[in-house]
């Protein structure tokens, strides 16, 4: 595939893929600031309001893995364009919604479209960029959209809701979707999937989709019965994958050391970093007294620093020192920032901003390195499902982190009944920062043990038109690792 992409066209294709990915990531956070306005306008109950977020997360997280596999079978470009079209159309319906049920249904449809579009993006990028240095740079651009998107969403959500209305948190997707979709048809080169005749494990797809959907719902809603059911379904899925002739998620991928280690680290890293973002948004509003717009602006330094790191020098560091070293060093900076936040006081510029800058720097270096590791040594025919897998572990980590940290902060605050309420809230948030640091420390420990010290040059993700004999010689080496 790489030979069919001149440098300029390849750069335009990368811009289109990242723009679409950014739109999907933005949507997971942009609505959060608008929830009070949505509740007042559409008459949601407090319990029902949670479904504006949960409906999206359940569909998105549950369908990422099968979306990635569909990309391998039907062609990643086709799945990407279909998902982007559905997401854009569902955004229009959500913006026009005048009924709570319509909005929740539209959010579910957004999740489906988002899963289809985003699950295949990383697989498309690594096949477009077979050269190690160019791939590292491209993954850095993609990682910026993933890492900074949530912070940008908070800013945009506050500004749009305050200046216009909550409807515009959905309408904003329309111009982005059209601007991404039209050039995508021209600049994203068609690819040929292996075809549905190669086999789609329907039973496996049902099991894993139900397991992830139930798991995300259970973690978001503290429904422990649903979590137990999700665990049973996940175990059944693993058994099915071991026996299926054409598995949805080939278990051989987990014999690739970098893939297995990177996905475990991703769950822990996202649990700490996305959970931290949720806690900090509450801290800024409930302790420091900032409104929705100023809370969003307070996060602005984070995407700026992430951009400087991921777009400026992360690829050079990974090429010079190896992705493992860059990953562990970047996570170390994030840990230091979180530990500083455990002592945070009342000032934003003196107490909150310095740790945010440190964490942005660490995340900007660590996330591209981890994304590269997750896709290293993956056979070309499995790039879509590997891309869907790393996106799925991101969603699981986000759900776990948000649920755990929210519970920790609330329990700590409730236990300080004799203390000033504002101070009790601050104490709960400081404890949550400590738990976030614990997630990251565990990620560093496991990453140091599991990830190989030096990664050999990637030889499996070659152009799609490479001689089959060459691929046949390479795959046993990848599986042996």
UniProtKB/TrEMBL annotation:
It is found in: Cell membrane. GO terms for cellular component: plasma membrane. The chain crosses the membrane at residues 12-38, 44-66, 78-96, 108-129, 141-164, 170-189, 198-217, 223-239, 260-284, 296-314, 326-344, 356-375, 396-419, 431-452. Its main location: membrane. InterPro entries: EmrB-like, MFS, MFS_dom, MFS_trans_sf. It is a multi-pass membrane protein. It holds the Pfam family MFS_1. The keyword Transmembrane helix applies. Keywords: Cell membrane, Membrane, Transmembrane, Transmembrane helix, Transport. The keyword Transport applies. GO terms for molecular function: transmembrane transporter activity. This is Drug resistance transporter, EmrB/QacA subfamily. It comes from Amycolatopsis pretoriensis. The lineage of its organism: Bacteria, Bacillati, Actinomycetota, Actinomycetes, Pseudonocardiales.
């Amino acid at each position: 595939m790489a030979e069919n992409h001149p440098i300029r066209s390849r750069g335009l294709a990368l811009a289109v893929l990242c723009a679409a990915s950014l739109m999907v990531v933005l949507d997971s956070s942009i609505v959060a600031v608008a929830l009070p306005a949505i509740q007042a306008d559409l008459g949601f109950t407090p319990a029902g309001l949670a479904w504006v977020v949960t409906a999206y997360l359940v569909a998105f997280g549950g369908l990422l893995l099968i979306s990635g596999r569909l990309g391998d079978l039907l062609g990643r470009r086709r799945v990407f364009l279909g998902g982007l079209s559905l997401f854009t159309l569902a955004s229009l319906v959500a913006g026009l919604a005048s009924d709570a049920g319509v909005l929740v249904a539209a959010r579910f449809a957004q999740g489906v479209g988002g899963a289809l579009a985003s699950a295949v993006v990383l697989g498309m990028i690594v096949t477009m960029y077979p050269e190690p240095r160019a791939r590292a740079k491209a993954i850095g651009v993609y990682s910026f959209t993933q890492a900074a998107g949530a912070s940008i969403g908070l800013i945009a959500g506050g500004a749009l809701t305050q200046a216009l209305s909550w409807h515009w948190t959905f309408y904003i997707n329309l111009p982005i979707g059209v601007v991404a979709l039209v050039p995508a048809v021209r600049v994203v080169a068609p690819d040929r999937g292996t075809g549905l005749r190669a086999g789609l494990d329907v039973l496996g797809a049902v099991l894993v989709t139900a397991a992830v959907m139930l798991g995300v719902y259970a973690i978001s809603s503290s429904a422990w019965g649903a979590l137990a059911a999700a665990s049973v379904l996940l175990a059944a899925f693993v058994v099915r994958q071991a026996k299926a002739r054409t598995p949805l998620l080939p278990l051989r991928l987990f014999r690739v050391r970098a893939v297995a280690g990177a996905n475990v680290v991703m769950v822990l890293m996202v649990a700490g970093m996305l959970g931290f973002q949720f806690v900090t948004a509450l801290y800024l509003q409930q302790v420091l007294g900032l409104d929705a717009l100023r809370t969003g602006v307070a996060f602005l330094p984070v995407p700026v620093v992430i951009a400087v790191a991921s777009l400026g020098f992360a690829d050079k560091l990974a090429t010079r020192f190896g992705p493992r070293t860059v990953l562990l060093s970047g996570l170390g900076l994030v840990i230091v920032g979180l530990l500083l936040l455990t002592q945070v006081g009342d000032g934003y510029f003196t107490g909150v901003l310095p740790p945010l800058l440190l964490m942005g720097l660490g995340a900007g270096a660590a996330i591209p390195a981890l994304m590269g590791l997750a896709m290293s040594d993956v056979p070309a025919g499995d790039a879509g499902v590997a891309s869907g897998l790393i996106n799925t572990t991101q969603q699981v980590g986000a759900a776990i982190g948000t649920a755990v940290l929210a519970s920790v902060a609330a329990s700590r605050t409730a236990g300080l009944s004799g203390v000033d309420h504002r101070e009790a809230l601050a104490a709960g948030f400081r404890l949550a920062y400590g738990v976030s640091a614990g997630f990251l420390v565990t990620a560093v420990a496991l990453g140091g043990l599991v990830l190989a010290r030096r990664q050999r040059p990637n030889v499996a993700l070659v152009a799609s038109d490479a001689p089959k004999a060459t691929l046949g010689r390479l795959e046993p080496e990848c599986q042996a690792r």
